[in-house]
Amino acid sequence: MKYEKKALDLAIVEESEMRSRGTTYRQKTAQYVLHFFTETVQNNKPLTLSREEIRKLVLEKYQLDTDRADDVSKNIWILLAKVKDEDRLAELYSLAKERIKNRNVDS
Q1: Which pLDDT tens digit goes with each residue over 66-98?
Q2: Which of 7, 33, 89, 105 has a beta carbon 3.0–4.6 Å from 79's, enabling a disulfide?
Q3: 12-70 per-position pLDDT tens digit
Q4: What pTM value is reported for the model?
């Protein structure tokens, strides 16, 4: 669930940015993404769906046309991937620091 909460934080920032400088289309897409993550976090449901499953869910839930559903699901997928990548990088960074520390102790 930690990824979904972090993705919600990113969705809030993105929606705010789109509201101030995005096209009407991008503003609405960001609103759908924000709504999706808000519901997911409120329902305490971890997202274990594939990108295609997210697309189908978005199509059903919001009654969108195919292009809009593709854009919304892509943005959802990208935010989740970004959060997971940041987490993996933090883990790798910690591992590298520990290895360097151990190497320095051995020297």
Answers
A1: 999 999 999 999 999 999 888 888 888 888 888
A2: 7
A3: 999 999 999 999 999 999 999 999 999 999 988 778 888 899 999 999 999 999 999 99
A4: 0.79
Non-local CB neighbours of 69 within 8 Å, separated by 6+ positions: 55, 58, 59, 62
3-class DSSP string for the chain: CHHHHHHHHHHHHHHHHHHHHCCHHHHHHHHHHHHHHHHHHHCCCCCCCCHHHHHHHHHHHHCCCHHHHHHHHHHHHHHHHHHHHHHHHHHHHHHHHHHHHHHHHHC
- Tell me the two tokens of residue 102: 């151990």
